[in-house]
Design goal:
8-stranded mixed β-sheet, EC 6.1.1.12, 5-stranded mixed barrel, OB fold (Dihydrolipoamide Acetyltransferase, E2P), nucleotide-binding, alpha+beta, 21% strand, 546 residues, 3 domains, aspartate--tRNA ligase, BirA Bifunctional Protein, domain 2, RNA binding, aa-tRNA-synth_II/BPL/LPL
Length: 546
């Protein structure tokens, strides 16, 4: 058989050749088009550079300022540099080169070659001066960069500390920083929802402006709380929460030295810890539960557990419906419980020593903070006695009656009566801090021990500052039979607190204690008009955010 001849090698088709030629033509056209674009862009850039000052072309000090890229502050490296706290800058630092970080509080350009920037760190402020000078390594571009920053931006400044010729009124530190380098770590938005200067004004400033026909912006409470992260930066707020920290620390320190042991009790519980309707109810793994109204039951169970003396600092939850100046749905409770040997006045004596120690500590160690609060919210120092005054509830009722205020003898004091009694006590005894004891049993919690001589009254007390109650305390019932009886009388289902009642059947010593709201102590010591001022992020009947 004859074989077929081998096929010739394949060659490109006419269509493929035409396609390649077409692509080459398009590519050349595109190259020419791109070249024309580049030429136009180059000419435009050249014209722009010609229109700008010669210094803009190449700033020899460009490395001394600018925005720091995020990647540079993502824990990239440890440089070994040392930052100085603004509050530590004083006359002794004069002549020293420092590196500081703060928020840009004010930016004031004086000219193209000079500007002032005030940086703030916590409660301290310092004035930074930029003067364009080749010797200092500061250019006009650097001055312009600094003044272009938005208020509240986070800024690093390197410079030399100098002493001003005249005292500085606008800053806490009486030194200046001659700026050599300035870097923006993080820019704030150009327009903030509230102005810090507005939020920091006192009532006296508003009154003065009104007299002069000026109208200043007033930042209302809800607006402050909506933008709390900014509001907290005001000097008064910075001071308030430092005072709060001191109160808490002194509470712990004093009780620790009195042989109290710190505990932490659960906040999710099966039944009401105080009785009444002011409880937040929830479902806990298919079971009904609630948020603890106090650590009361667990403080007592800890005493039954042999600890002798305990204290706790922790959140307390009350389903308050009152939109008042002194009530919150969540606050920080300062609680204590202790064995008593003979009389519940042993608890009162602890309170006496504790709060006199707290007041002295604040007056002696927090003068700067108190003065700062006083500038925005003026108040008179709290009057108190070295030995705290104690009055019976009946004596208090008698004082009110003699002053023309009728009170139900077996009822509780309302807010108006408390304030009036506070004024009467101050006038008669010269103190704004006192203890009122032996309250009617009907107005106290179920676990309160009745009086031995009249069961209509109780071994209980309240403590007042400036005419407002801050502490409730009492001797507790330590026998299970009476405890169960009182719980039922107060409308509490005894089965929900069975483990609590049962703990007293194992042998429980006589004991008593007290609870106080941290926010209320600070509010009244500083005579502030609203407890929301002393709560970092308040929770009231209307507010769950931020």
């Amino acid at each position: 058989m004859s074989s077929e001849p081998a096929p010739a090698p394949a060659s490109a088709s006419t269509e493929e050749l035409e396609a390649d030629l077409s692509a080459a033509t398009i590519s050349k056209k595109q190259l020419k088009k791109d070249a024309r674009k580049a030429e136009k862009a180059g000419k435009a850039s050249q014209r722009q550079q010609q229109q700008q000052p010669h210094a803009e072309e190449a700033d020899p000090f460009a490395a001394n300022y600018g925005d720091v890229p995020v990647e540079e502050i993502q824990s990239k490296a440890i440089s070994g540099r040392s930052w100085t706290d603004i509050g530590d800058l004083d006359e002794a630092a004069a002549g020293r080169s420092v590196l500081i970080r703060g928020s840009a509080q004010t930016l004031r350009p004086v000219s193209k070659k000079m500007a002032f920037v005030v940086l703030r760190q916590s409660m301290s402020t310092v004035q930074c001066v930029l003067v364009a000078s080749a010797d200092a390594g500061v250019s006009t571009q650097m001055v312009r960069f600094a003044t272009s920053l938005s208020k509240e931006s986070i800024v690093d400044v390197e410079g030399v500390v100098t002493l001003p010729k005249e005292p500085l009124k606008a800053t806490t530190q009486q030194v200046e920083i001659q700026v050599r380098k300035v870097y923006c770590i993080n820019r704030a938005i150009p327009t903030l929802p509230i102005n810090l200067e507005d939020a920091a004004r006192s009532e006296a400033e508003f009154e003065k402006a009104e007299q002069n026909g000026e109208k200043l912006v007033r930042v209302l409470q809800d607006t402050r709380l909506n933008y709390r992260a900014i509001d907290l930066r005001t000097p008064a707020n910075q001071a308030i929460f430092r005072i709060q920290c001191h109160v808490e620390n002194k509470f712990r320190e004093f009780l620790f030295l009195e042989n109290f042991i710190g505990i932490h009790s659960p906040k999710l519980i099966g039944g009401s810890s105080e009785g009444g309707a002011s409880v937040f109810k929830l479902e806990y793994n298919g079971q009904p539960a609630c948020l603890a109204q106090s650590p009361q039951l667990y403080k007592q169970m800890s005493i039954c557990g042999g600890f002798g003396r305990v204290f706790e600092v922790g959140p307390v939850f009350r389903a308050e419906k009152s939109n008042t100046h002194r009530h919150l749905c969540e606050f920080i409770g300062l609680d204590a419980e202790m064995e008593i040997k003979e009389h519940y006045f042993e608890v009162c004596d602890i309170i006496d020593g504790l709060f006199v120690a707290i007041f002295k500590h604040l007056n002696e160690n927090c003068q700067k903070e108190l003065e700062t609060i006083n500038r925005q919210y003026p108040f008179e120092p709290l009057k108190y006695l070295e030995k705290t005054l104690k009055l019976t509830y009946e004596e208090g009722i008698k004082m009110l009656k003699e002053a023309g205020t009728e009170i139900e003898p077996m009822g509780d004091l309302n807010t108006e009566a408390e304030k009036k009694l506070g004024r009467l006590v101050k006038e008669k005894y010269g103190t704004e801090f006192f203890i009122l004891y032996r309250y009617p049993l009907a107005v106290r919690p179920f676990y309160t021990m009745p009086c031995y001589d009249d069961p209509a009254y109780s071994n209980s007390f309240d403590v007042f500052i400036r005419g407002e109650e801050i502490i409730s305390g009492a001797q507790r019932i330590h026998t299970p039979e009476l405890l169960r009886k009182r719980a039922i009388e107060c409308g509490i289902d005894a089965s929900t607190i069975a483990s609590y009642i049962e703990s007293f059947s194992y042998g429980a010593p006589p004991h008593g204690g007290f609870g106080v709201g941290l926010e209320r102590v600070v509010m009244l010591f500083c005579a502030l008009n609203n407890i929301r001022k002393t709560s970092l992020f308040p929770r009231d009947p209307q507010r769950l955010a931020p």
